[in-house]
Amino acid sequence: MKILVTGAAGYIGSVCTEALIERGHNVIALDDLSEGHKEAVDARAAFCQVDLHDLPALDHVFEKHKIDAVMHFAAKCLVEESVREPGKYYRANISAGINLLDSMLRHRIRKLIFSSTAATYGEPEKNPIPEEHRTNPVNPYGASKLLFERILSEFRANSGLEYITMRYFNAAGASEVHGEDHHPETHVIPILLEVAAGEREAFQVYGTDYPTLDGTCVRDYIHILDIAQAHTLAIERISEFPGRIYNIGNGHGFSVKEVMEAASRVTGRKINYRTAPRRAGDPATLVASSDKIQRELGWKPAFSALDSIIETAWEWKQKFPKGYSSD
Ligand SMILES: NC(=O)c1ccc[n+]([C@@H]2O[C@H](COP(=O)([O-])OP(=O)(O)OC[C@H]3O[C@@H](n4cnc5c(N)ncnc54)[C@H](O)[C@@H]3O)[C@@H](O)[C@H]2O)c1
Question: Residue 86: helix, strand or coil by DSSP?
């Protein structure tokens, strides 16, 4: 298939581009480079520097390349920023997405995988969380993703759009060549590795009084190669499961303290940390039930051990200590 990957210069998009190419697909990699890195785009993909808000440029991409399907990773994804600047998040995650849908359908492309998030659930009533759990996002980032899920179902009713929504939990780890290099970095594992590497003084533990085993937040870390595998399976069988929502998680929760200890074990370095009060809107525990995708697509995470997930991120950091070099 010829697949358009939006956000292909970002963390998850770059790894999925690599996996799709390895699997024999052709990739048209689209990114405006507002956050991502040109160097992260696989050299075997055709790269288009296009902002999804620019409809004529987007139409041009669909006219130029005979695209069969789209994977839509491009988004703004910083929770705290979304609280400060909700308009930026609704423009990026809704308006730009509608441009993509309009342009796709004008060019008779009806297959789409959409990157959603566990943030659509808000504070869950139970863990592991199944897809039918009520949704109640507590920040504009999660709300924008949930709204786009609804927009997709409305488009599907009238256009024959075949889409699958993937709600990722905490993406982590690296491939041999692509890893996580966000500015600012807000994710737990890369921050811990910065502390281990001596690039950051200390790690902040937000909240030590949660109702969890050690008082720190529990999250589900899913390796990006497992996310990529879920995407290749889904795009190849999308016509059998149109309109599905799948959680993509490991099914195991790890507390912030456990992740700190694992990072120290893997790197062989001491991790300095400080404790700070809870952050508003941080649920105590978020763990995925991924039974549905396991049952329907036969997907199963290959990297469920936390140490092996961190190991791949640490190897990538040691290979590329400055991340992607253009910055
Ligand atoms: N990283 C996670 O743990 C996680 C968890 C749940 C969901 N997600 C979702 O997965 C997707 C990818 O996340 P990521 O961590 O790779 O993010 P990222 O910021 O690394 O990548 C997003 C990419 O989209 C590009 N982009 C943003 N707006 C654009 C626009 N208007 N036009 C073209 N390109 C644009 C950015 O330049 C960037 O390269 C996002 O949709 C995010 O909401 C990520």
Answer: helix
**Strands of 244-248's sheet in order across:** 46-49, 26-31, 2-6, 69-72, 111-117, 162-168, 244-248
CA–chain centroid gap for 135, Å, is 18
pLDDT of residue 158: 85
Q: What is the pLDDT of residue 47?
A: 98
The DSSP output letter for 120 is G
75 CA → ligand 1 middle, Å: 4
For ligand 1, is residue 10 a contact (CB within 6 Å)? yes
What is the 36 CA–ligand 1 centroid distance (Å)?
Answer: 8
Ligand 1 atom having least distance to the Cα of 52: 32
pLDDT at 256: 98
Q: How many residues does the chain have?
A: 327
Query: 76: CA distance to ligand 1 center in Å?
Result: 6
Annotated active-site residue 168? The verdict is: no
- Domains of the chain in start order, with CATH, are 2-171+223-248 (3.40.50.720), 188-219+251-319 (3.90.25.10)
Nearest CA to ligand 1 atom 7: 117
Q: Ligand 1: does its nearest atom lie under 6 Å from the Cβ of 117?
A: yes
Give the active site residue among 90, 121, 141, 163.
141
Q: Are the C-beta atoms of 28 and 66 separated by less than 8 Å? A: no
Query: Cβ(13) to ligand 1 under 6 A?
Result: yes
pLDDT digits (tens, 9 = 90+) for 78-108: 999 999 999 999 999 999 999 999 999 999 9
Q: Where would I find the H helices in the chain? A: 11-22, 55-64, 79-84, 86-90, 96-106, 140-159, 188-196, 224-236, 256-267, 291-297, 306-319
For 58, residues 6+ apart whose C-beta sits below 8 A from its C-beta are: 50, 52, 99, 100, 103
Ligand 1 centroid to residue 211 C-alpha, Å? 31
Q: Whose CA is nearest to atom 13 of ligand 1?
A: 12
**Positions of the chain with pLDDT under 70:** 326-327
